Amino acid sequence: MTSLDRSLIAGLSLFEGIAAADLDRMIGQARSVRIAKDQPVFEQEQEAHSFFLLLDGHVRVVKSTPDGHEVTVRYISPGELMGIAHALGRTTYPASAIAVVDCVVLAWPGQLWPTFATTFPSFSANTYKAVGSRLQDAHARIIEMSTEQVEQRVAHALLKLIKQSGKKTEEGILIDFPISRQDVAEMTGTTLHTVSRLLSAWEDQGFVKSGRQRVVVVEPHRLLVIAEGRVAKG
Amino acid sequence: MTSLDRSLIAGLSLFEGIAAADLDRMIGQARSVRIAKDQPVFEQEQEAHSFFLLLDGHVRVVKSTPDGHEVTVRYISPGELMGIAHALGRTTYPASAIAVVDCVVLAWPGQLWPTFATTFPSFSANTYKAVGSRLQDAHARIIEMSTEQVEQRVAHALLKLIKQSGKKTEEGILIDFPISRQDVAEMTGTTLHTVSRLLSAWEDQGFVKSGRQRVVVVEPHRLLVIAEGRVAKG
DNA sequence: GAGGGAATTTGCCTCAGCGCAAACAGCCGA
DNA sequence: TCGGCTGTTTGCGCTGAGGCAAATTCCCTC
What we know:
2 copies of one chain form a homodimer. Chain A is α+β, with helices and mostly antiparallel strands. Chain A contains 8 helices and 12 strands. The first copy, chain A, has a 4-stranded antiparallel sheet with strand order 1-8-3-6, with no helix packed on it. A 4-stranded antiparallel sheet of chain A has the order 2-7-4-5. The mean pLDDT of chain A is 95. Chain A binds chain B through residues 63, 65, 67, 69, 71, 73, 85, 87-90, 94-95, 118, 121, 125-126, 128-129, 131-132, 134-136, 138-139, 141-143, 145-147, 186, 188-189, 229, and chain B through 63, 65, 67, 69, 71, 73, 85, 87-90, 94-95, 118, 121, 125-126, 128-129, 131-132, 134-136, 138-139, 141-143, 145-147, 186, 188-189, 229.
């Protein structure tokens, strides 16, 4: 926990409305932890001992099904909470969180949640607001899965990713962490083959560039057209 | 609000841990409203003026997409909260709620939420626990949509419905409100044609009976086998 | 810089499930 | 009782996208 981290945290919308002294009290009770790439922050079904704030890096939240499928629930960027099972009355984590690059997280013991909730009401309100967005996102995803075809869903997924973790480069907007065709497939409920075919086609048309675990969107506008189904399929 | 309703409410897990006097104070601030069949309790995009407790009847929560698709998010049974946008920091309803039969709801003005949350902490905790379940359900649904085929999804949907609103009859377990093929299709991301074909096939095999807006599950076990994909397709 | 493993590309085949269309049945109101 | 409306069934053809398999390319390590 550097002072840089400290001021970074203070700027998060999550801590809006919280006095500086309170914020320090909260941070004082957390433990800063490094998670190496591909290591779990927490795992599905395990007892929820802590909740976390991602300070640096990117984390993928996945659920595994009994029959061996993996579904990516969402990606987490710096500044977001994760593993907040306690806030929702659960005692185990419903999914696993895997670091996709080396990460730094702040960890609070789960038992602290009730105290935090009553002591820092804005924190609790902000957290539940974030939960509201997640629920909203989940529903949006259900709707996508119900009504859109694969091409649209993949386009939506890429747009979501560049919005959340896009980094401008001279080529276009780069998704700022390693992501494979398989990863995109797990976000959209399709197969890596289909994703590969789509990216190839888009690359031919020149509005996406991609390589090994790497995607750059050159013209987001064209993706948007596909995502919204405003395209006569050519 | 009859005294019967009053004792019914007191029994809900939602009000667990709340003193009788507090419960009366809460109820005292609500308005009891009747909603006729097919009428909305609240509508998507509209400003969230109230949150509701369903006392009697069944409500369908739907989201409409710009391109005219409708997706059923979930069905609500008596005893469940709905329209709790305020608890999640939203100012508009993210979906519409339509009465599928004549209903009775208890409505609280939205502004009351913050007061309730601080005055009756168990109520707030219970509510967020319910939100946690919904999030869980939403994720389960995403996983279903990503990894299962239509037959499994429809089987899952029927199982969910009989679990939530099943009523034992001499024929089997009846879904206790009018539900069409189209409705099931909107729950599972398929078409009424496909649902119709499936139900016909299942009826031939004798473990489901159905008619106009009516479904009875004769052997839930057989449905479960299909839902879990433990079936060699025949 | 050679070898090996992982990620990606691509071709070919297959089929679940959708779209379309037509026929049919049950229920309600006049 | 007689339409007429809404919900349901069913046939047929088509296709998006998955499964399988092989080839290729990239990157990392030794």
